[in-house]
Every structure is written in structure tokens, then in C-alpha cells.
Amino acid sequence: MLTRVHTISRMLSILLTAVAFSSSARAQGGEAYIIGKGDQLLVTVWGYNEFTTTATVKDNAMFAMPLLGDMKAAGLTKEEFISSLQKRLAEYVQGEPRITISVLSSIGQRATILGAVNRPDNYPISSEVTLIELVSMAGGYTSDARLKKIKIFHKDKLQPPTEVDLDYYIERSDIENVPRIKAGDIVFVPRQENLVKEFGEFLRDVAFFFTLLRITDTAR
Prior knowledge:
This protein has five helices and twelve strands. By secondary structure, the protein is α+β, with helices and mostly antiparallel strands.
């Protein structure tokens, strides 16, 4: 009986945590987009059509601009790339040109989540997301997930894998300090044996709730 009460209490905590996270993310208005290799960009220089172009960021992080040649783009925010373009364009145009950058497609900005989640897959991210957000993108974790031993394998191979006790953050509703996932990272949620599965239906409801959150945020 105590185990059942504890499990229900923890599941309710997850729901509250998800709501708090979703509200916080919408309030912050999202993070600055980091341009990645393989991104297809539309760079518009208003009033100067000769500089307006559509191209893909190369593997060497460079973006080919008419007349200007290759310019570093990958790893920069759109605002930083615009600032760099304005400095170069000052050699060719008078005043400060108005520049906009649109990301037409992005293939490099993804994080992978595997293991005990409902939809293991690669998920596009703009720059960074929290571990909770990535789990929610994957439809929530399964009933046999071992949340105390989640591992994050970093894109930077020199950085050792990070082991995360997600239960710790969920039980404390500690959204601010949940580890963050970067593009290229791989998250593995292990399964545990001998887990009581009498709350499977409730866990499916939680997964459905996470899915609704993701759809709602995407629609916005």
C-alpha cells in the first residue's frame, strides 16, 4: 500500500514538473538558435539583392556569400552571424544594411534518446534542451525505466558520459538544475528488472500528457 501511494505521489510530481517546465519554457520565449553544419540558410540583405542568397552551411562551418566568399556560420547564433555579415558588407555598402536569416532546414541540430522511453528516436533541437524536455519529446519514459541511472553520451568525445539521477530532480521539482542536452548528444534510459508494473495504465496516461505538451508547444 505504501509503495502504491509513493508511486502515485511521484507520478503526480512528474505531472506538476512538466507543467512548470512548459510554462517556464514559454515564458523565456526559447533560446537563441545556434547555426549548425548542414543547415540550409536564406540570407536576405534588404535593398541589395546581389548579396541575398540561399546555401547550406558546409562541413568546415563556412557559408558561401556572393562577393564576400566563405564566412564562418556554424557555431554562431543568427544574431552573431548577422553582426559578422554587417562588418564585411561595410566594405561594399553605405550605412548598416538590414539583414535577416531564415533557417530553411536543419539536419545537424538533433539529439538522440534511446532505451526505456516510448518513442526512442532522433529529435531536432534549436540549441539546448533539458533532459526532462527530451524525455517528453520521446513520449515519456516506460514503466520499467531506471531513472536513477540515465546516461548522457556527449558529442564531445573527450567529455566522459554523465550519469543522471532524474528521480532526484523530479521529486524536488528542481527544473532549473536539470542537466541540459546539446545537439549531437545521446541519452540512454536503462531498464530495470523486478519493477512493479501495476501502474502501467497510469504511466501511459503520463506519456500521453507529455505528448500533448509537446504538440501544444509545437503548435505555438
